[in-house]
Design a protein that fits this description.
The structure is a single chain. With about 120 residues, this protein is α+β, with helices and mostly antiparallel strands. Helix content is about 35%, strand content about 15%. The protein starts with a strand and ends in an 11-residue tail after the last strand. The relative contact order is 0.24. It catalyses: [glutaredoxin]-dithiol + arsenate + glutathione + H(+) = glutathionyl-S-S-[glutaredoxin] + arsenite + H2O. GO terms for molecular function: arsenate reductase (glutaredoxin) activity. Pfam families: ArsC.
């Protein structure tokens, strides 16, 4: 079983999620998403695995960058939002754990246990 963790070591929730996985004996494939170049297909697959209704649910909506880019504009399409994440990976909510065809945002960290 390969588990992936979209991780930011500077984020306390991301570190807590990594510690939780490690305590469960899981050594995830760590993806430092701030250094990662996402493709549209990759973001669409992640969105599908998260089973969300809008890409905004996987974005850091309280982030200054989100407001600066006016991503709350209701006329933006899902592809517009994915393009914003591709251009600015810091917009992606963290941490995200992926297990096969399921994914979960680790807020709170314990929520990822439901897909293990």
């Amino acid at each position: 079983m390969t588990i992936a963790l979209y991780h930011n070591p500077r984020c306390s929730k991301s570190r807590e999620t990594l510690n939780l996985l490690t305590e469960k004996g899981i050594q995830p494939n760590i993806i430092l998403y701030l250094d990662h170049s996402f493709s549209l297909a990759e973001l669409q697959a992640l969105f599908q695995k998260l089973a969300l209704t809008s890409p905004r649910e996987m974005m850091r909506k309280k982030d200054d960058l989100y407001r600066t880019l006016q991503l709350d504009n209701p006329e933006l399409t899902n592809d517009d939002l994915f393009q914003a994440i591709m251009a600015h990976s810091a917009l992606l909510e963290r941490p995200i754990v992926v297990n096969g065809n399921k994914a979960k945002i680790g807020r709170p960290p314990e929520s990822v246990l439901s897909i293990l």
